Amino acid sequence: MQGLFCDPSLERHFTGHTSAITQLRFSPDGHQIASSSMDSTVILWNLKQAARCIRFGAHCSPVYGVAWSPKGNLVASGSHDRTVKIWEPKVRGYSSEFLAHSKPVRSVDFDNTGQQLLTASDDKSVKLWRVSRRQFVTSFSQQTHWVRAAKFNPNGKLVATVCDDKSLRIYEVGSGRCVRLFTEEHAAPRQLAWHPWGNMVAVALGCNRIKIFDIGESELLQLYVVHSAPVTDVAFHPSGNFLLSGSEDGTIRILDLLEGRPIYTLNGHTGSVNAVAFSQDGEKFATAGADRQLLVWQSNLHTYDANQFETKSALASSCCDTSGGSSFKQSSGAGGGCGSGSTSSKSNDLSICIDPRQSSAYQALDENFQVLDVSLESGSECCSCSAHLEEISNQLDNLNRRLQRLEKLHFL
């Protein structure tokens, strides 16, 4: 294969969480990865050799979402305990906690200035907060079911949400209006990603498919059927030419959006792949999931040449199952069901299969790194104290209602 482009390759292999990883994000400088987990912690993985990693006991319940501020000086996390923490990503960092929603928080996201934070929850709402004062600004509340994710577009003027009411909604931040609505018939969206240009959104669907919508034209641009189980996460390469996806089928796919086809099928996980992310320069991507493993890859996509793809695919010696089909669809409609307008025929999947489990990077398992456990120095009550205070408050409310009823009986 002399002279052909380079394939993605596994660079690092980490373990440290004690339960499934739910989300991951690269720091703006690409030197660290933040991961959230069902084990109620957030780990900052330092990608520099022989450097220690930091595990923050951030919450008292599973952590569903994590995000870096644009400058990398703050990390936000959202949890099943209904709170959001904003904290400095260092050993002696300061943190602030606030009760953001009345039900679990599924998603957190900073805007492009780092001054605003977006949170999404099972209470059917999406809320906008001012970071400096931890102050509520406004809410986007047209959803009728749990909100799985909410994200700013690159310039911070629009917000996209995906919800268990089978919708993708686009809101204007300034006016709060819902300006676009795309609906599904068969399965709810699991996650979303904005294209770097800010005019397209990719949606991971529970019916095993990926859709890419043109927001300006209100139309479906591309439909991919490349997984055999629900798609859990998607991420655009910074160039906008490639899409990374993870699925409950345990595979990762890389799509060439210009040609409208899958080009890589990546293995390495032993369960659902819950989270995928590119670094800001696109040189690396990371994957994580139910097996508690974090895999960091060299993307090598800057070397990719579509004209060489079929030649290299034919030469590839991988023998993994590639029975999943893919389809490209130009649509004039504004959404619809998972099968809306798609062809039922399955095209041949020529994607190159990569399984790194026999590689030295996978076998090494980064045994030399250390995970340092840190308790955050909170600027507010700790999680258990907050829960205790809320319990006392509820008891006082109940006593007050009983006293009011007794007073009414006394005057009768």
From TrEMBL:
The keyword Repeat applies. The keyword Repeat applies. PROSITE patterns: WD_REPEATS_1, WD_REPEATS_2, WD_REPEATS_REGION. Keywords: Repeat, WD repeat. Pfam families: WD40. It comes from the Eukaryota. GO terms for cellular component: centriole; ciliary basal body. Residues 327-346 are annotated as: Disordered. InterPro entries: WD40/YVTN_repeat-like_dom_sf (IPR015943), WD40_PAC1 (IPR020472), WD40_repeat_CS (IPR019775), WD40_repeat_dom_sf (IPR036322), WD40_rpt (IPR001680), WDR55/POC1 (IPR050505). GO terms for biological process: cilium assembly. Gene3D superfamilies: YVTN repeat-like/Quinoprotein amine dehydrogenase. WD repeats lie at residues 14-48, 56-88, 98-139, 140-181, 224-265, 266-298. Belongs to the WD repeat POC1 family. This is Uncharacterized protein. It comes from Drosophila willistoni. The gene is Dwil\GK10412.
